Amino acid sequence: MVKTEDISTMAGGWKEVFERSRVVPPSSQTVRLAVESHFNQSHGFQLSLSRLTAAHLPQEISEGDYDVTFQLRATLFDRNHQHFFGNTWKSSPQRMKNSKISFNEVLYFHTSLRLPSVVLVLELVSSSPRPGSSQQALGRGFTVLELFTNRPEAQAADGDRRLNLHNGSPRSLLHPHLKDMVDYSSLLKIIDGAHLECVIKNHPVLVSVMHLLPENVLISGNENIPGLAASSTGDALLKPHLLKMLPFTLNRLCISLQPSLEKFESQLLQLINADCHNTKQLKPESALRTVVIQERRLHVGVHNGWCFLDKPQVVVLEPLASGARGRSDSTSKLSTLVRESSATSSLPQTLGLRSSLELRLTNHQALAVVFQLEYVFSAPIGRETMLSATSTSRAAFLQCLRWGIWCPFQEPADWKGEDIQLVLQAGAKPNPHGVMVYSAEMSAKTQSPLPLSAPGTAQARDTITFRLSSSLERKASSPKASLRTKQEDVPRQRRSPSSPLQGQKSISPASPPESPQGPGLSLSQLAASSRYPTISHSSSALPWQQSFPSLLHPSPLTSAHQLSHVAYSGVSNIAHLEIDLQQKGDMSASAQDEGDQLQELPFTPVHAPVITLGMNVPSSYSVSSRSSLAHLYSAGFPDITDCSGQVAEVLDPTEPVPFDPQREEIDPLQGNLLVFQFLAFTRIPTAGVGPDWPDNIYFTFQFYRFPPVTSQQLKLLTSDKVQLKTSVPCVLASINKDGTVNSGSPGLQVHFRVDEGFLRPGEKRWFLRYLALHTMHIDIWNSDSLLLIGSTAIELKYMLRQGKSAVQALHEVEVLTTDYVGEDTPLTCADVGRQSILSPMTVHTIIRGRLHIRTGNIGCQVEPSRRRAADEVPSHSHIITPRKVTGGFRGGSLSSRNIFQLNARNAAQAHRLERDGDHVPLFRRGVKADTIVAGELNLNELDGGRRKLNCMAAVHQREGREDAKETEVTDRSKESRLVTELKQIKPSEKQSKAEGIANMLSQAITTQHLLYASLGCAEYMEFVLKNPFNAPQTVTIHSDDPELSVITNTEEWGYFKALTKTPTPLEENMFHLERGAPGPRVYLRPKESIHIPLKYQSFLCDHTMALQGPSFLPTGKGSQVAKKNLSSMVAAKTIKVTFQAEDGKPMAICQVNVEPTPHVVDQAFRLYHPELCFLKKAIRLPPWHDLTDSTVGDSDVRTHISVRCSDPNIICQTRMLVPGEPQDVYLKVPGSPSPHIKMFFVMVFTDKWMAAPSQIWQIYVHFLERVDVSCVTGQRSCQSLVLRGKQAVRKVKCFSSHPQEIEVDPEGVFVLPPAAMQELQLKVQPWKAGSRFLYVNAVDVENRRLVTAWLLCLNVHRPVLSKAFEVCVPGSGGRGSSRKITYTNPYSSGRTFLLRSDHPDLLQFKEDKFQIGGGESYTIGLRFAPSQSPGSVEILVYVNNLEEKTEETFCVKVNYS
Fold first, then answer.
1. Which string of b and e fits 1055-1066 if b means at least 16 CB within 10 Å?
2. pTM, full prediction
3. CB distance 1231 to 1173 below 8 Å
4. Average pLDDT in the 889-901 region?
5. Strand ranges of the sheet holding 1377-1384, from the earlier edge strand across to the other edge
6. Helix H or strand E segment including 1053
7. Fewer beta carbons under 10 A from the terminal one: N or C of the chain?
């Protein structure tokens, strides 16, 4: 057996390389910004430092200064965060000759942080000998090298550089005044005549050795890099060659922990549980609630001193008795603290690996195999910190216990065919994994007489034994690696400190999945028995009391349905993915005295039930019976007829609709009258509400770019003949303002007229596309309580006429909502007096009813004179060519009316005079507009000055009526006053002339372009720029709006050219970007014309919403209002792109007029969340093949998933994952006070350059006041609420979402004075156990407006059962069954009791209320209804008192045969 000592014996090999390879990680915000900018791949670079000229450096020629040498030191720096990172590279010392220092050195590095904020700081340091052997280093100046430009591709700014040196030290860059500064020359003094010459360029061949070097490390080619072959030139990185990697097999691995495995783990658990008891004193009955060991793991990787050559492998170890060869059952039986002394094995126990591992090594003495022993602990979580060992609410956390390294090729290499025994390390020592390692040096406090295996102990040392053999020599003689082996992305990551006194940290669910999950056990699998732990908010909670995200439950809602559910991060077990959007995996300790930063571990969390996008379109077919349809059509709804009075053709919504755009264009009926008839609503029985719920409803929806529609109140009418039939549709009837039901035509009809008077030029094709692709979402609300009943959607493609005079379609769509319900939790003694752990939440889709709606489209004639504008479709060409002949200025006076028509800036000049009221009070003193124009027509005549004075004198005469004394002012004083005012007007007049001339000249070179823009869609165009001069010009392109930009990336340019099929030449490296320039620059030869690619894209829109509550539709003003409201999304604007010549004057101007067009909403969500706190939500993306297909043949287009939000105050992002893994969009929405509703849009892009969104989601977030209620089924619980008055007196009534389970006192309408406090009493009596969410609204009954809304988070327990019974009842076709139960009054006095059941549809009582004397018995009569299908069900019978407090609970199991 070959025994290996500790790491200190490897001074000449791996340790020497490892000690000088320590690096400082970059800022996490910078890493996240690079990922968001699609800089995922690291690129290699080469920097050549030639010489430094230092003419004005202090020449130290005094005695003893002959040995002064100079050295360059280089470090990467992030100026946005003022953070040095990576390592500091030092050149070899050089002497100064003739004020010049020749370095001639080359350094290399690779990085993915190709951002303009990342620079390289180079410092010149002089070194002189001190008395003795030390050196005195003194900084002589520094410079900053810009590595990357502002171009989207962020390539290195290649080429020769001449860098000026600044006075001082690089530490001056940390000054607050230099934060985010681009040019340091304004604040840092330059050393005259001192400059550094260098060359920076790409080094692509460095890609082959990136696995040997960590990122952001500056290194020379002569450095020792294990795995890299040496070069005869001395620069191994110039043309790197890798050493050959050979396969090896590692087997027969076992780990021995002293004094024994059992005692080691027992003492370890004692320390952890003792820490728990020290953190919070527990009751005696909590003694058995312990932390247990769940898994023992070993990390094995190959390290070259710089980094791991490959991702370390992770295997699961098994405790084995000495000599035992069978597999132990340790995975099912967890080790605990409480053990019987008699169970202690006399044989020494070890941790073993039955399988083998495959490693790839190369023959280098500094190459090491690294082992890390890691334990996975299962810790109880919750409000009371500790639970029983069998509890399902537990969280897993990791802790490194031991580690060791072994250099197989260090002399002597005599290990072949022998077992190798390696001493494992512990304690605070630097290690390759960068983690804190457990060490116990406090054995006096433990129960064991023997100390734990502390470092430095000579007798008992922890060891690992294994055998390494070449796989080429042994042809797979050992079995393959364990199926539980997996790859983890853990190189150079630090874990949380975990000494026994500090406590181990739990796994943070903060990051989305970043590393692929292998076949082994991940942390999410380790916590599989605890998918829904409670989130603890107690200040005394232990560090590992942190929950894992819960399992996903996809909602069956379709893409056309809206979701209505809760998202609340503070409520236990709410089934959503609550995450931290900040990425922390790349952070590390930059200051040792401040301690190490806690790092998240690379694992894939088990997702909570995030919002899952639907899969199908909502059902739009009739499920009503023929009798129900007959009742519906007999109500007398108005028919949809064409212009000739004929009934419109009926389309079947279950059949596909052919769409031919040409048939729509040649249709003689170019006008469209679109009709929506809301006919009836079919109630569906729902738990918690009565059979007549809802009684009154209203709708909210938005069609095209018309204003959002909020309907008036609609009454659900039911005929007396069919009142008992719940499946019969209830006809809708509008309610008048006085509350009476409108006796006219039933239903609600809303129509929108879309014709040439409404559509803008070229908009017709957009409108047809809207009808063909769009699904209109409709929300159905309870008009009394203002609570959302549900949502539905209808497809608008059935409104396409396709040449017909009129069409109609009848839709019967389901009204859906979602609810989150937890599993049942029994009420035990342990639950009394504290909040119990809640159970898993599952998503239920609830059908609240069916909406009957009829859609139609009636063709209308259009006047021929008005057809031209709408049919005139602008050119589809994306090339903008300036016009050759202009007719802008026709000559004459610059102040004439043609100037006002062509130049809008003159009108702005008139407004400036209006603001100058003290000097020229024309507008404020009654002068009419026509007087102003008439005066301006004579301003340029010969005697115009005198005429101006006369005009101003007339004004003062009119002013004299106000004060009679002013008429006595002498003519001389008047004249002097008028002359003074005239002098003040002349500069403005000259300025107006100059502006008029400039505007007329700019119009001659201005080209107008009309652009139809939609939210998130990129509009591509090319402007033909021609150099009219006979000399070459460097033109600067400037856009006055950042949403319109120049495409400078060649790849992006080619993508949009292929997308738009623009057959123009593509030129690479056409633009020149300079820092601080107003825009990119392009070089033009004399008389040359080139195409400038432009892109307009806007992610911002208007989020204005109407107040919640029913209203009355405007009559006959829909089109007029819609004209003014061109789009509630993207704003209409005018953008100018100026092409400036070298003299600063414009060469050409492209004026882009942006006209908004509506966008298609693919999915809408409604989220309910507590007020004034952040909403963290995850929305799961559908599989890639379900997204919109790309129009450009890029095979890798679907891997680039990016998201944007229309609200800049909302954080919205997604992360790149491995193929096959689900991908989520993460939202973080700031909270608002109740009952505010926040609406925004989320755009999902599946192409790299974000040409058009594949999905657009509309998200509503309702903020409510949160109330937590803990109760028992069948028993009434009371909760007090406080309602605060607003500014005015209101008549308020409170409503609940489940009236049969929640009663609000006061029940009726009450007056709420201003700034008053009204106490409300909630009486909650739920009938189903688990976690639920209910809602209570306080409504202003006069104005139908929401005052306040509450979110009730119910934690409902099952009651303690007194007796259990079983009965058999005939199934379908039977007549039910009757039974009796005897109940005895336990009190000595007479009492009155109430009988309740959680299944009133299956069980009815003979008497719901009975009175019985003290000690007497009463027979409870039960009547069981027959079931339609065989099976069994448990029915709870509650015996309550008059206060609805449960006295007894009986469980009756009913078997239906």
1. bbbebbebeeee
2. 0.55
3. yes
4. 45
5. 1377-1384, 1417-1424, 1403-1405
6. helix 1050-1060
7. N
Q: What single DSSP character describes residue 199?
A: E
Q: What is the CB neighbour count within 10 angstroms for residue 172?
A: 15
Choose between 206 and 1103: higher pLDDT: 206
Distance CA 794, CA 620 (A): 8
Structure tokens at 888: 């802008």
Question: CA–CA separation, 32 vs 651, rounded Å?
Answer: 52
Close Cβ partners of 1212 (under 8 Å, ≥ 6 residues apart): 1203, 1204, 1205, 1225, 1226, 1227, 1228, 1242
Distance, CA of 894 to CA of 995 (rounded, Å)? 10
In the block, residue with structure tokens 């008395």 = 131
Cβ atoms within 10 A of the Cβ of 131, count? Answer: 6
Percentage helix, strand, coil, to 5, in the chain? 15, 35, 50
- Average pLDDT of the residues of the chain: 75
Specify the pLDDT at position 824: 55
- Return the sign of the alpha-carbon dihedral for residues 44, 50, 53, 57: positive
Residue type, 1200: H
From residue 977, alpha-carbon distances to 286, 949, 974, 1396 in Å are 96, 10, 5, 95
Distance CA 334, CA 338 (A): 11
Place of tokens 């053999």: 469
Query: What pLDDT score does 487 carry?
Result: 38
Backbone φ and ψ of 1197, nearest 5°: -70, -30
Residue with the two structure tokens 């072959």: 229
Laid out side by side, the sheet with 1409-1412 consists of 1363-1369, 1446-1456, 1431-1440, 1391-1397, 1409-1412
Q: What is the SS3 assignment for 1429?
A: coil
Phi, psi of 631 (to 5 degrees): -65, -35
Tokens standing for residue 1224: 């989520």
Amino acid identity of 143? T
SS3 sequence of 898-916: HHHHHCHHHHHHHHHHHHC
Cis check for the bond before 259: say yes or no (omega within 30 of 0).
yes
Q: According to the model, what pLDDT value does residue 594 have?
A: 52
| 3-state SS, one letter per residue, for 324-366 | CCCCCCCCCCCECCCCCHHHCCCCCEEEEECCCEEEEECCCCC
Residues 606-633: tens digit of each pLDDT:
444 556 554 334 455 556 777 777 777 7
Handedness of CA 126, 129, 133, 134 (dihedral sign): negative
Residue 432 has pLDDT above 80, yes or no: yes
E strand or H helix at 1292: strand 1290-1296
**Residue 880, pLDDT above cutoff 90:** no
Please tell me the total number of residues recorded for the chain in this structure. Answer: 1457
Six token digits for residue 524:
């999410």
- Check pLDDT > 80 for residue 1215: no
Residues 6 or more apart whose Cβ sits within 8 Å of residue 495: 398, 400, 433, 434, 435, 436, 599, 601
Residue 28 has pLDDT above 80, yes or no: yes
Would you say residue 495 has pLDDT above 50?
no
Q: What DSSP element (H or E) covers 270?
A: helix 261-279
- Judge contact between 1079 and 677, C-beta under 8 A: no
Residues 6+ apart with CB under 8 A from 652: 809
Strands, E, within 801-948: which ranges?
806-822, 825-826, 841-860, 879-880
At 983, the pLDDT band (50, 70, 90 cuts) reads low
Which three-class secondary structure string do you get for 714-727? Answer: EEEECCHHHCCCCC
Question: Cα–Cα distance between 496 and 502 in angstroms, integer?
Answer: 10
Whether the Cβ atoms of residue 125 and residue 69 lie closer than 8 Å to each other? no
Contact 1368, 1417 (CB under 8 A): no
Is 656:800 a contact under the CB 8 Å cutoff? Answer: no
User: What 3-state class would DSSP assign to 529?
Assistant: coil
First to last CA, the chain: 73
Comparing CA positions, the residue from 1297, 1276, 1015 lying closest to residue 1156 is 1015
